[in-house]
From TrEMBL:
Keywords: ATP-binding, Glycerol metabolism, Kinase, Nucleotide-binding, Phosphoprotein, Transferase. It comes from Cohnella zeiphila. Belongs to the FGGY kinase family. ATP binds at residues 15-17, 269, 312, 316, 413. This is Glycerol kinase. It catalyses: glycerol + ATP = sn-glycerol 3-phosphate + ADP + H(+). GO terms for cellular component: cytosol. Activated by phosphorylation and inhibited by fructose 1,6-bisphosphate (FBP). Key enzyme in the regulation of glycerol uptake and metabolism. Catalyzes the phosphorylation of glycerol to yield sn-glycerol 3-phosphate.
Length: 499
């Protein structure tokens, strides 16, 4: 690092959008560029994206972040990448072209493969080795599906002609001009193929899912120089790519959750609550996942995770599917106007339910409609579903960890919604803490990259950067919160029975 290098560039490739953000040494975003990513729904429950479009969006947002701010490539000390996790890309090593659309984490198209694994009794072994549950969510069955459904693909993968990667890995491959095929511990831990205790690809699991080892990336820590950018893509300079983590783990890092038991929740397309558990991989019997938080300084940290598949995407559905709102921000105005949902419950199980239910066959449902139900009640009920799902997760997390939450650190697109944040605090009965830098996922990736090149010097320095911008305190009487939550539990049970 030299004295001219005053920024770290974070690339946050999320499900809804790709963002490039430049952070200075105080952790302040100097400029942000954003581009939406299209999702395609070729069959009910399937979700796909175009990996080439994702790559081009990274080039586009990086160029606009630089041109908007006037920051020069020479001023960038390092690049950190964070990504929607599990989304699976298989590409041709020689041409760098994906052989099929990327299968997005939300997609249910591998439900049959999962049912087969369960019926053959593999659930327990998979859970023990990977910390995950058998569900179409994770990459392993998606790789198998692609190899099963593309003529000659498995043989080509065995010969090393095809490569697999999650989005982090795909982007590093493209950014380094096909020189580096790497991923980090946090992303590897979401594949269903990685042994999170022994820190290696697991041969038994590879055999079980019929995935050739030759197509898998090398697994590295979350903070080190993996390679440098190809000058003709990145403004004539070789910039070190020095940080990499799945977006939920990066948000945990960016929120300064460096102490055992610290928790954050991110409300993006989905909603993910993670608790940092240091060197201890806690096993959950209640549907939480055990996952690798990050690899740093020669060791790994673990986390307990609750994954909710549909959060902000329910608000997108109100906008694009139901056409009840024009912008996501309208949901706040209408929810305030409604005041309460008047007994309406929306269960947004559009792609099944994750933690703690793990029911991949359930679909969305609405309960409690009356002639008095108006658009604003329906919108409010959809928004409230985000908060109810977080409560489902927090209840099991407290039980499994033996810890009681005192306040919840939050981030992600939907934390702009004050009605949602207040309702979340009311329902959980704890303060909800929104940080000044709401882009904590990107900040986490920047921190990881910056640590690797000496831009920042350690966790103490990073922890001091976080500041609270808004704190929502519980205002609703407890018995009212309990009554509302009981209604939600009934609605979810009914939706599960209906499938
Ligand atoms: N004011 C708002 N109220 C509720 N949801 C919102 C609001 N603004 C954005 N969102 C939701 O947040 C999500 C985008 O959040 P973001 O953190 O950018 O997601 P991702 O990282 O998954 O791409 C979208 O699904 C959008 O519907
Ligand atoms: O796109 P997000 O931010 O909702 O995150 C997606 C998760 O990484 C999926 O596991």
């Amino acid at each position: 690092m030299n004295s001219k290098e005053t920024y770290v560039l974070a690339i946050d490739q999320g499900t809804t959008s790709t963002r490039a953000i430049l952070f200075d040494q105080a952790g302040t975003p100097a400029g942000t560029a954003r581009q939406e990513i299209a999702s395609h729904y070729p069959s009910p429950g399937w979700v796909e994206q175009d990996a080439q479009q994702i790559w081009l969006s990274v080039l586009g947002v990086t160029a606009s972040a630089l041109s908007q701010t006037g920051v020069l490539p020479e001023q960038i000390a390092a690049i950190g990448i964070t990504n929607q996790r599990e989304t699976t890309v298989v590409w041709d090593r020689a041409t760098g072209t994906p052989i099929r659309p990327a299968i997005v984490w939300q997609s249910r198209q591998t439900a049959d493969i999962c049912e087969e694994l369960k019926s053959e009794g593999h659930e327990r072994t998979i859970r023990e080795k990977t910390g995950l549950v058998v569900d179409p969510y994770f990459s392993g069955t998606k790789i198998k599906w692609i190899l099963d459904h593309t003529e000659g693909a498995r043989e080509r993968a065995e010969r090393g002609e095809l490569l697999f990667g999650t989005i982090d890995c795909w982007l590093v491959w493209k950014m380094t001009g096909g020189k580096r095929h790497v991923t980090d511990y946090s992303n590897a831990s979401r594949t269903l193929l990685y042994n999170i205790h022994e820190l290696r690809w697991d041969d038994d699991l590879l055999r079980l899912l019929d995935v050739p080892r030759a197509m898998l990336p090398e697994v590295r820590s979350s903070s080190e120089v993996y390679g440098t950018t190809v000058p003709h893509h990145f403004f004539g300079r070789e910039i070190p790519i020095a940080g990499m983590a799945g977006d939920q783990q990066a948000a945990l890092f960016g929120q300064g959750c460096y102490e055992r038991g610290a928790v954050k929740t991110t409300y993006g397309t989905g909603c993910f609550m993670l608790m940092q558990t240091e060197e201890k991989a806690i096993r959950s019997e209640d549907g939480l996942l055990t996952t690798i938080a990050w690899g740093l300084d020669g060791g790994v940290r673990y986390a307990l995770e609750g994954s909710v598949f549909v959060a902000g995407s329910a608000i997108q559905w109100l906008r694009d599917g139901m056409r009840l709102i024009e912008t996501a921000a309208d949901s706040e105005r209408l929810a305030a106007q409604a005041g309460s949902s008047q007994g309406v419950y929306v269960v947004p199980a559009f792609v099944g339910l994750g933690t703690p239910y793990w029911e991949s066959g359930v679909r969305g449902a609405v309960f409690g409609l009356t002639l008095g139900t108006k658009r604003e009640h329906f919108v409010r009920a959809t928004l409230e579903a985000l908060a109810y799902q977080c409560k489902d997760v927090l209840d099991v997390m407290e039980r499994d960890s033996g810890l009681t939450l005192r306040s919840l650190r939050v981030d992600g697109g939907a934390v702009r919604n004050r009605e949602l944040m207040q309702f979340q605090s009311d329902l959980l009965g704890v303060p909800v803490d929104v940080p000044a830098v709401s882009e904590t996922t990107a900040l986490g990736a920047a921190f990881l990259a910056g640590l690797a090149v000496g831009f920042w010097n350690g966790l103490d320095e990073l922890a001091a950067i976080r500041r609270t911008e808004s704190l929502y305190e519980p205002r609703m009487p407890e018995e009212q919160a309990v009554r509302l939550y009981e209604g939600w539990q009934k609605a979810v049970r009914a939706a599960i029975v209906f499938q």
